[in-house]
Specification:
Protein name: CRISPR-associated endoribonuclease Cas6
Helix content: 40-55%
InterPro entries: CRISPR-assoc_Cas6-like_N (IPR045648), CRISPR-assoc_Cas6_C (IPR019267), CRISPR-assoc_prot_Cas6 (IPR010156), CRISPR-assoc_prot_Cas6_N_sf (IPR045747)
Order of helices and strands: HEEHHEEEEHEEHEEEHHEEHEHHHH
Number of helices: 12
Distance between the termini: 52 Å
Domain CRISPR-associated protein Cas6-like N-terminal: 27-142
GO molecular function: endonuclease activity; hydrolase activity, acting on ester bonds
Radius of gyration: 21 Å
Keywords: Antiviral defense, Endonuclease, Hydrolase, Nuclease
């Protein structure tokens, strides 16, 4: 894979220094296409895979943990921030523009790997034959969990949700920033990586009793969700405050503000390693980027097909039936967009023959549904 030339190495090293005890780091890469180029709507799968490949080249054990580990994922990645235009069944990027890509690390082990990796950084991110040159990289955050816990704070926590954000609740997606869901999302990461775990049930009961939404400005959109399926998520801004009685439990009062400051590192909700749930501190009325038309179309098609296949499989029921319905829907919708079964299999991490079989079964099921209408 392309590696950096000396001038880029020097540029990285002059800006990318953090202390040895740092436990959380946020990076922003400035990317530029070498020419006008088109990428596929689910390109965040490619960004996810590229990042894990970078880890694998240096530390295969860490890469396997990031990919398959049962705990919370100790990293997030964003979608590309910049001008993306729907062009037929793809998204168009322009050589005259730059794009920003955010990566965060939530564990000391991954932060240590990042420091080593950036001593010899790559020169480009390759999205399925669409090379994006890395123009620069900057630190956006660098801190320890103890510093989050002990830092000063305002009376309220204002958060901006820059990319669609959603939670899982009772087998469905919840596109609302309910306090218990939001802070449960942060607490899971805190308990896994901070070394200062807190009883989840007791803290969330306190959140339910004392955390208030003081104002919000939200909108919703259907978006693609990682390797399979689609979700309805929210973007916008929310401000959380506390009741007067909240301070009677000072350890939770203190943790509440620490978790708010953790949000930019860990993101909010699920699929944060595929670009969803990107979160920033502060209140802003600035409009969040719209989901490109082709991505919205594909997300809606996947959602509609999933509903059809789930309805047909009601007799079997259960999580397994829902997972198969989502896989069938994703495969069929992407085939309708002109993508090859080989590429779909690679992106979804499913054997080619299985994807081929699922595509046939999905087409047959769709025909049967049309015949029954």
């Amino acid at each position: 894979m392309p590696r950096s030339n000396p001038s880029i190495i020097n540029n990285y090293e002059s800006h990318l220094n953090w202390s040895a005890n740092t436990e959380l780091v946020g990076l922003v890469f400035e990317l530029a296409p070498k020419a006008d180029v088109s990428i596929y709507p689910q390109y965040t799968i490619g960004l996810h895979a590229w990042f894990l490949d970078q880890v694998r080249a240096v530390d295969p054990e860490l890469s396997a943990y990031l990919h398959d580990g049962e705990s919370e994922k100790p990293f997030t990645i964003s979608a590309l921030d910049g001008k993306l235009v729907s062009s037929g069944k793809q998204l168009h990027l322009f050589a005259s523009n730059t794009y920003h890509w955010y990566v965060t690390a939530l564990s000391k082990r991954l932060v240590t790997w990042l420091a080593q990796w950036l001593k010899n950084p790559p020169t480009e991110v390759n999205l399925r034959n669409a090379p994006l040159q890395i123009k620069s990289c900057q630190i956006t955050h660098a801190v320890t969990y103890a510093e989050l816990l002990n830092s000063d704070h305002e009376d309220t926590i204002a958060l901006q949700f820059l990319s669609p954000t959603s939670f899982r609740r009772k087998g469905h997606h919840l596109p609302l920033p309910m306090p218990t869901n939001v802070f449960h999302s942060y607490l899971r990461r805190w308990n896994d990586f901070s070394g200062m775990p807190v009883d989840q049930e007791t803290f969330l009961a306190w959140v339910d009793d004392h955390v208030l939404i003081t104002r919000h400005l939200l909108t919703s959109a259907k978006v693609l969700a990682g390797k399979k399926g689609a979700v309805t998520g929210f973007t916008g801004a929310v401000e959380f405050g506390l009741s007067k009685e909240a301070a009677k439990q000072p350890e939770f009062y203190k943790l509440f503000y620490a978790l708010g400051k953790l949000a930019p590192y860990c993101g909010t909700g699920h699929k944060t390693t595929f670009g969803l749930g990107q979160t920033r501190l502060g209140w802003s009325l600035q409009a969040t980027p719209e989901v490109p038309n082709v991505e919205s179309f594909l997300a809606k098609r996947i959602e509609d097909l999933t509903d059809i296949f789930k309805a047909q499989r009601k007799r079997t029921g259960g999580v397994r039936a829902e997972e198969i319905a989502a896989k069938w829907a994703t495969i069929l919708a992407r085939r309708e967009m002109g993508e090859s079964l080989q590429v779909i299999a690679q992106d979804m991490g499913i054997p080619y023959e299985t994807v081929k079989t699922y595509a046939k079964l999905a087409r047959r099921a769709l025909v049967n549904n049309s015949d029954s209408v």
